[in-house]
Each structure stands twice: as structure tokens, then as C-alpha cells.
Write a structure and sequence with these properties.
With 219 residues, the chain is of the alpha/beta class. The chain has helices spanning 23-30, 45-57, 71-81, 97-110, 132-135, 138-149, 157-164, 168-176, 205-212, and strands at residues 11-16, 33-41, 62-67, 88-91, 113-118, 121-124, 190-195, 198-203. It is elongated.
């Protein structure tokens, strides 16, 4: 009996464009690639165009998505790319220092496969999946939602206490936590700063992305 040779699985490779862009071609040699999506900060636009020319030689379709280079823009872009695509791989080695870290974190929170490149060596990263909603009790979520809806009105502990009808100690507990329980500050979802003698609470980039749905919170 003759067996058909298995057809290699082809991948959609997502890669930030930066000062390590040569690592893209190392990854393509390792993983059969049917499409490349470049996440391109504005100052790397020319580099993205060079990559597109090179990949045309291999007849690999390329799409470049422009971002401002911030963590939030990278998270949002990857979250919007993900639906409808299968066999996604994120090459976290290709960007600059900021976009490499952002791409790695985005892969972790969205449960996507990612790999790093060191010289000619490709190394798969562990697939992690964080379910933030399971970690955040309802009262903490209500604080996040209220700050997101009306940051101008609800930046202080007192304003949050009034709007949510929670005591000040309870608001402080949910935001600052204690020895036994992490607060929203320790979870990286809010920042507390002193301004004109008052504590001002604002959402971090991760907090905004969580509330806006750019971080995968499914089980």
C-alpha cells in the first residue's frame, strides 16, 4: 500500500517591522508560509516596502498595516487580524524593542503561537492563555467600566465611591489591593497618581484594551 506524502501546513505569519527584519526570512525558511502580514510603524515604512519586494520573488502575498508603534496599536491590530484566520504564527523577533515586546505580549494574551529568532535558530515560545475576566471580580470590572465610560468625571476615589455606591475603603481595596489580594494597580489595569493633593485613577493601555475588547478574554 502506498501512502500519500503529507502536505505541509502553511501559515499566516504576522511580524512587526523594525531593526531585526531579517529574522522574517529565517522564519519563512522554517515554516511554510502562505501569507505575511507586516505591522508597520510609520518610521519603518520604507523597510516594509523592501520586504514586500523581496517576498514577491517567492510569490508570497504581503499586507502591510500601519501603526503608530505603541503597545496599544500593536495589540489592537493583532486582535483585529486574528478573527477568520487559521494557522497564525507571530514572529516576535523582527521589530524594534517596543514592538517586539508588544507582539510577544499580544501573542500570550490571545493564545497565539509565536516564535523568536536568534541568528539562524528558530525557537517556539510557549502558548499561554490569560482569561482576564475570570481573574477580575464584578466590582473591579464595574470600576474599570465606569472609568472607561467617563474618565473626566470619575478619576478620584471619592467620585468612584459616589457613582458606584461603594465605601471609600472598598474602592481603595479593589484598586490598591492588600497582602492577600491583588488590586487593579497590581494587575496593571489602572494607574494612580497624585494630582493637586488628590489621587487620580486612570486606565492603563492594557486596561483600555481589555475593556475595548482588544485582549482575548474567552476561555
Amino acid at each position: 500500500m502506498r501512502f500519500r506524502e503529507a502536505i505541509p501546513m502553511k501559515h499566516t505569519v504576522i511580524a512587526p517591522v523594525g531593526d531585526k527584519i531579517d529574522a522574517l526570512f529565517v522564519g519563512i525558511r522554517e515554516f511554510p508560509t502562505e501569507k505575511v502580514i507586516l505591522i508597520t510603524p510609520k518610521n519603518y515604512d520604507n523597510d516594509a516596502k523592501k520586504v514586500e519586494k523581496e517576498l514577491k520573488k517567492f510569490k508570497i502575498p504581503v499586507k502591510s498595516i500601519e501603526v503608530d508603534g505603541s503597545w496599544e496599536s500593536v495589540f489592537k491590530t493583532i486582535a483585529e487580524i486574528k478573527p477568520g484566520l487559521e494557522n497564525i504564527l507571530i514572529n516576535v523577533a523582527t521589530g524594534d524593542r517596543h514592538t517586539r515586546c508588544a507582539a510577544t505580549s499580544a501573542a500570550f494574551v490571545n493564545g497565539l503561537k509565536a516564535f523568536a529568532v536568534e541568528g539562524p535558530v528558530v525557537q517556539m515560545l510557549p502558548v499561554l492563555k490569560f482569561s482576564y475576566y475570570k481573574m477580575i471580580p464584578d466590582k473591579k470590572l464595574s470600576i474599570l467600566n465606569l472609568i472607561n465610560e467617563d474618565e473626566a468625571c470619575c478619576k478620584s476615589f471619592e467620585e468612584l465611591s459616589t457613582k458606584l455606591k461603594m465605601s471609600l475603603p472598598l474602592i481603595s481595596y479593589h484598586i490598591n489591593g492588600n497582602r492577600k489580594s491583588e488590586g487593579l494597580v497590581q494587575m496593571g489595569l489602572v494607574e494612580v497618581r497624585e494630582k493637586k493633593g488628590r489621587s487620580e485613577i486612570t486606565l492603563t493601555s492594557l486596561g483600555r484594551m481589555l475593556i475595548d475588547g482588544h485582549v482575548d478574554v474567552s476561555e
